[in-house]
Structures are given as structure tokens and as C-alpha cells.
Amino acid sequence: MKTRLWLRPDILALAAATAILAFWWSVGAGRELWFDERFVQVVSRMKWPEMFDLLRYENNPPLFFFLANIWQRAVGSNEVALRILTLAPTIGLLAVIRSLANKLAGSHIAALSVILTSVSGMVVAQAGEFRMYPWLTLWAALALL
User: Fold this and answer.
1) pTM, two decimal places
2) Three-class SS of the chain
3) What is the average per-residue pLDDT within 68-91?
4) Confidence tier at 110 by pLDDT (50, 70, 90)
């Protein structure tokens, strides 16, 4: 039996990735950084020894600050460039969700899972903020593979 084009899992996954890009652009791009995002930006601009000293008192895991430090040196520190750092793991999350759901329930359920994940309010909100939460979500999903 031939699968309809719109039911093909790769087409659905691509549609979901496009949807999250559109949501991210409308939610995150062009919006100024808020306090917590600005804090990450300022701390991650510091030299590594200063950052180590400050992060001893920070509640969030330090890996994202070091990753943000490297990212800002490579691509700059405007709002769009910073938010791309959190969009990347969100798209990676979609790939992991697709792989997990495909193993557990098959390709059609995997495509549906990707779509539902991509329009999840929490996932969309996290994708548009310069915080460590999309990376945390990706690592948690990878742990399930």
C-alpha cells in the first residue's frame, strides 16, 4: 500500500521542524532579553576564571554558561545569535523524540510525537529563551534512547 505524501514520517518531521522554527521566530526573535537571559549573557561573557568563581554560587548547572561563552565568542551576542544556541537543541529534541517513538510505536506515531512536541507550549517557550532548559530537555530525552 502506498503511503500518502502527507503521512510520510519524514514529511511530518520536516513540517514539525518548520513549525517550531516559525514559533521560535515569532516568540523569540526580535524580543529583548529578559533578566535571567541577560544574566546568562553577562556571566558567559566573563573570562573563565571569573566565571568559575561566580558560578560556585549559581543554582543552574555551569555547562550552559561555558557553552554560551564559546558561542558568544564565535557568533556574537545579539539576541538572535544567542537564541539560536537554544533553538538547536530543540530541533535535536525532535529527532530524539522521533527515534524514541519509532522504536516504541512505529513511524506514524513517531511523526505524530514530533508534531505534538513541536507545538508544545513549554517546548516552544524554551526554544525562544536564552536559558539552559532546551539543553536539559535534550539530554533527558537522549538518556531514554
Assistant:
1) 0.81
2) CCCCHHHCHHHHHHHHHHHHHHHHHHHCCCCCCCHHHHHHHHHHCCCHHHHHHHHCCCCCCCHHHHHHHHHHHHHCCCHHHHHHHHHHHHHHHHHHHHHHHHHHHCHHHHHHHHHHHHCCHHHHHHHCCCCCHHHHHHHHHHHCC
3) 89
4) confident
